[in-house]
Specification:
155 residues, alpha+beta, 6 helices
């Protein structure tokens, strides 16, 4: 990816974060979904069959800062290492809204996406995510925004 593409991506992430935290956050889903469609079209994303293929196609869509760590039991686990503008804000609901980008992208690629730990949570420096094939469901995965609502500590 070129420096220009990285700059555009960083700008979009910052705009997405501000939008997700604003009183106008309801437009975030539409904007992030549109941006995900543009990304998948521009990058030539294709629907993948296995969870491993889906996860690595998701990783390929990003300029940097994301990694697939392991695939086990039908779930791919990854990390988002790039510093998020929502870091330490405690606003995991904004994170959830902002991550509509990834959920929309995974819809094109053939997967489902869950944030397990969010940089929006105090002290979290790397987002932990899970990816499953579309239609497999997210049962057994503890979504960060739901865990924080229940006020459960990080594992």
């Amino acid at each position: 990816m070129t420096t220009f593409e990285q700059q555009i991506f960083n700008m979009a992430v910052n705009i997405g974060a501000r939008s997700a935290r604003s009183p106008w956050h309801k437009v975030t889903k539409a904007v992030t979904t549109l941006y995900a469609r543009l990304t998948t079209t521009f990058k030539g994303a294709t629907h993948r069959k296995t969870v491993d293929e889906v996860a690595h196609e998701w990783q390929r869509m990003f300029p940097s800062g994301v990694a697939v760590k392991e695939v086990r039991d039908g779930t791919a686990y990854g990390e988002i290492r790039a510093e998020c503008p929502l870091r330490d804000t405690g606003d995991v609901e904004a994170c959830y809204r902002m991550m509509e980008y990834d959920r929309a992208m995974l819809g094109v690629i053939g997967g489902e996406f869950v944030v397990l730990k969010s940089q929006a949570e105090p002290g979290v420096r790397v987002c932990e995510v899970a990816i499953r094939r579309a239609g497999e469901g997210t049962h057994g995965l503890d979504h960060a925004h739901e865990r924080v609502k229940r006020r459960l500590p990080l594992a």
